[in-house]
Recover the amino acids of this structure.
């Protein structure tokens, strides 16, 4: 009836992964569902976690309002705070939790009059040099915020640049910097993202912020820590064979004629391409599953299609199932072949892809 290309998202796996994060850190955790829950659908994911999540984290007020619109009443953190002053009235009204990461935001909050006080997460730049206040400004800001009538509570947070590299000493350096600064006033805290939750117990300081691990993908590119074995992949990206042909030794396949058949062989054409979010830079050799059997991608990925070497699989038929990533083929493995990371693969899924939700197992 229609194009067989879709993403199947197992919401039970996302619940499992959230609970795994909580078991590891033994602290409350905000489920990070920014960017439409990393392409998995923020509304569906938020609803699936509603009875167990301590709250959610999103990038901006638009994403937060979308959650309120579908009836999510739990705490929602704005990871980048506000971009314009007039968001503050809505933040207070909706009781969103607001990151303050620069002095402009700080002044806006201190110099306004809010209908209700809000919770603030004050961000220290402990070395990543992306968002956050310097050590020097942080202490003053903290004092000003705890005295402000607009502020209910201040959580001190920071973000790790290299937690996804288990041997990298930068995590300890950043942590020491953060700990030293906040020690005198012992505030509530938040440090750990997925990589930290999976590999750095010393970052279990207050609220966890698991993102990619909720979706069952590993943030580590090599040297997978043992903890990643317990993750359950939530998304299966799948399509089907829409053509099967025999090519002769020396024939080429696809745009640019970049792949040349080493022998007479069967080639399959799969109805998915970069127009669906499958990475165009996936190299020849990238694994995909045809009827559950690993077969290599060959040639260039097109907009709507790609080609696969069918030699490993016996008896492939037209319309047979092809899995691009999922439980038996980790997204991070595909990401390595495409010189990217699972985050980009998931968020790159385009609107053309139908998302089907399942629960169970
Ligand atoms: C996106 C984000 C997270 C989640 O990161 P993952 O690596 O997906 O776990 C945590 N904290 C902040 C500040 C973020 O922006």
């Amino acid at each position: 009836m229609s194009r067989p290309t879709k993403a199947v998202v197992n919401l039970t796996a996302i619940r499992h992964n959230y609970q795994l994060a909580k078991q590891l850190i033994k602290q409350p955790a905000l489920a990070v569902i920014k960017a439409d829950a990393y392409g998995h659908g923020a509304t569906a994911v938020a609803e699936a976690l509603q009875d167990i999540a301590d709250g959610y984290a999103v990038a901006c007020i638009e994403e937060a309002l979308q959650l309120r619109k579908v009836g999510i009443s739990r705490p929602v953190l704005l990871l980048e705070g506000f971009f314009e002053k007039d968001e503050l009235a809505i933040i207070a009204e909706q009781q969103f939790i607001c990151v303050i990461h620069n002095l402009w935001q700080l002044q806006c909050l201190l110099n306004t009059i809010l209908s209700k006080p809000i919770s603030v997460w004050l961000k220290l730049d402990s070395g990543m040099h992306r968002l956050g206040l310097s050590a020097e400004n942080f202490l003053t800001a903290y004092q000003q915020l705890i005295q402000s009538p607009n502020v209910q509570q201040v959580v001190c947070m920071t973000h790790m640049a290299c937690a996804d590299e288990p041997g990298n000493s930068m995590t300890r350096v950043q942590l020491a910097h953060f700990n030293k600064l906040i020690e005198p006033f012992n505030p509530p805290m938040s440090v750990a993202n997925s990589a930290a939750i999976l590999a750095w117990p010393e970052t279990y300081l207050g609220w966890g912020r698991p993102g990619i691990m909720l979706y069952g993908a590993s943030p580590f590119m090599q040297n997978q820590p043992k903890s990643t074995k317990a993750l359950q992949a939530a998304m299966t990206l799948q399509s089907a064979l829409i053509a099967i042909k025999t090519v002769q030794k020396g024939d080429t396949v696809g745009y640019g004629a970049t792949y040349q058949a080493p022998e007479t062989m069967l080639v399959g054409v799969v109805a998915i391409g970069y127009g669906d979010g499958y990475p165009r830079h996936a190299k020849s050799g990238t694994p995909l599953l045809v009827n559950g059997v690993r077969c290599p991608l060959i040639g260039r990925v097109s907009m709507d299609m790609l080609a696969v070497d069918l030699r490993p699989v016996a008896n492939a038929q037209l319309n047979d199932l092809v899995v691009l990533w999922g439980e038996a083929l980790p997204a991070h493995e595909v990401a390595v072949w495409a010189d990217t990371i699972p985050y980009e693969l998931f968020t790159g899924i385009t609107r053309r892809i139908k998302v089907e939700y399942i629960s169970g197992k």
Notes: The chain has two domains: 11-218, 235-358. Residues 32, 34, 79, 159, 193-195, 209-212, 219 surround pyridoxal-5'-phosphate (CB under 6 Å). The mean pLDDT is 97. Residues 11-25 form the longest helix (15 residues).
